[in-house]
Amino acid sequence: MKKSVLLDLRNLDNPTSGFGQIAICYAHYFAEMDLPDLRFVFLVPEDCTMDFGKNVETVRCTRNMKKHTKLLPKVDLWHSVNQQQKIRRIDGDTKFLLTIHDLNFLREKNWFRQQKHLFVLQRLVNRAAAITCISGFVGEEIKQHLKLKGKPFQVIYNGVENIVDKPQEKPAFATGRPFFFSIGQIRKKKNFHLLIDVMKEFPDYDLYICGDDHFDFAQTIRKRLATEQVKNVVLTGKITEEERIWLYAHCEALLFPSQGEGFGLPAIEAMQFGKAVFVSNCTCLPEITAGHAYVWKDLTTETMVEGIREYLHLFKADASLAEETKAYASTFTYQRHIEQYLSLYRKILQLK
């Protein structure tokens, strides 16, 4: 008999987020698999109307299930694909696999809240049969702050969907001037505010900062832009997938000064298009870009501006750099990513 593996894909209801993108790709790739030893169960949002085909069982998570976990399906292996998923049914012989994307609360929260998050996460680790994370940097933080107690632990880099040939749509806010691009939730940890002073030194370029802007910090940035009369920086809010792909395809470079990344997906997506990428020397970004991006040694305005001018000139003058970034980005395939998870599923379930 096949062993059942549940994938918690409730982030399908937020397709513009990183977790949402992962859920979409998991749904696509796992739904196509008809394996002799494993069958997959998708836990999806209650209002999800997607048809995943005959190879998987789809369970829509209702309010009653959230209150009464016994109503959730019983499976052989439950995979929480990120550490923020709080609903699970682990009883009897059910194994639990936990994927941790980051410990960003160590940089965002005060000491008391850090300890609260660590306590909750430690309880999840205690219940898990195995733990995975998405970068070596995150792995080192986990080992430093959590007790693994000898449990199987593995770094599995995120897969990155190849978006180069997918449909594009020019956003209404694009003026036709050359532009830099940045994307992510408009939160302090992303360091978008540092780019305001940077862009004052690039009056011939625009900068489009795209992403969820419901956070208070977005208003802080908008106030600065208005007060300092910076006209070439635009906070666009959320954009469509087609707009995102167009911006990657047509930007001069990706500017990504974040200090709160578990993986740094935009850097690899920009590299798929052969674009120059600039990242902070923080968290996993130097590891993930692996010498194929310009890493700012610090985030002072002078250093950032100097780095952009120097590397952008070099990048444009040497066509081989764009080809090298494309080749490197192509190594982050979902096929390799999922094969690693299939191997781990079988190991946990003691399948040959």
Summed up, the domain count is 2
The helix-strand sequence is EHEEHEEHHEHEEHEHEHEHEHEHHH
Largest sheet: 7 strands, parallel
**Low-confidence blocks of residues:** none
Strand content: 15-25%
- Give the end-to-end Cα distance, rounded to a whole number of Å: 13 Å
- DSSP summary: helix tally: 13
Summing up helix and strand content along with how strands pair, one would put the structural category as: alpha/beta
- How many β-strand runs? 13
Mean pLDDT: 96
Shape: globular
CATH architecture of the largest domain: 3-Layer(aba) Sandwich
Measured as a percent range, the helix fraction is 25-40%
Task: Tell me the name of the CATH homologous superfamily of the largest domain.
Answer: Glycogen Phosphorylase B
Strand arrangement in the largest pleated sheet = 3-2-1-4-5-6-7
Structure notes:
The protein is of the alpha/beta class and 352 residues long. It folds into two domains: 3-159 and 333-348, Glycogen Phosphorylase B (Rossmann fold), CATH 3.40.50.2000; 179-329, Rossmann fold (3-Layer(aba) Sandwich). The chain is built from 13 helices and 13 strands. The strands form two sheets. Strands 3-2-1-4-5-6-7 form a seven-stranded parallel β-sheet, sandwiched between helices. Strands 10-9-8-11-12-13 form a six-stranded parallel β-sheet, sandwiched between helices. α7 links the parallel β9 (206-210) and β10. The model has no long low-confidence stretch (mean pLDDT 96).
